[in-house]
Amino acid sequence: MYVTIHPSFSRGETVLKYSMTESVRDVRQLRHPIARQLLLDHGIEGCEIVSTADVPSGTGLSTSSAYTVGLIHSLYAYQGKYCSQERIAAEACSVEIEELGEPIGKQDQYGTAIGGLKVIRFLRDGSVEVEPVVVSRQVLGKLNQNLLLFYTGLTHSAGEILEEQNRSVASEEDKFNSLIKMTALVYDMRDALSSGKLDDFGAILDENWKLKRSLTNAISNDFIDKYYKIAMENGALGGKLLGAGGGGFLLFYCPEERQLRLKAALSDLTLLPFDMENSGTKVVYVGNKDWA
Q1: Spatial distance between the Cα atoms of 13 and 30, rounded to a whole number of angstroms
Q2: Which of 177, 204, 268, 273 has the fewest CB atoms within 10 Å of its CB?
Q3: What angle do CA 259, 264, 266 make, to 5 degrees?
Q4: Cα separation, 98 vs 46, whole angstroms
Q5: For helices 137-146 and 198-213, what crossing angle results, to 10°?
């Protein structure tokens, strides 16, 4: 996600360009809820903000939170202010969850703001702890090589799925217990990575997916189940649907020597090459500006 900001040519207008273009005299008239709220919070107007992304929204790759994180960082840089990644993540959570009332967690904001492999703990008092997962360069490279990402062509509304999941977990004890088991798998996966047992990583992905899809019927569907089954029969050791569910991207762990067979079996889906990102949100360029 790339966000740029600079003074608008017509200083009385605020211009916002994303999948559509908005030009308003009053920031409160903006239809994009995240941009509107952040500009009001920071007291900024008379600027032009342009965003572009590698993937579309609704695909489970945290595009909304990546936009929020990127815009917050841009606004601080525009004002000549430094802001840590942790503070940016916390502000992004505050905007999306508290101010805009989205029924989401904090994982996307912290995941996009702070780079690298990490364990994120969400504590009862509302605070968040981020612990880097220490792995060798060799293991990290092999992990990156053995992960394949396929686009299903389906998009979803994360908010609707998460609301249904929250109701299900709150009312059914077995669903709540599945969520507890998923939490425990985090530490199993951390230990597998730290010890370089990557095949165990694949098996844990598979176990996690089975637990996740049991939380509510909205998470998976016949289309997703079909391709997950095909992948597991053609070399994948585990995988999961990224995001809330219902569509988006399927991630699979597959040893390199089996990947040709897997790619052929999933040729109906779009393969998206990717590399792991380690730096988190960052300012790429700051032009000359009178901060006063």
Answers
A1: 11
A2: 273
A3: 95
A4: 26
A5: 50
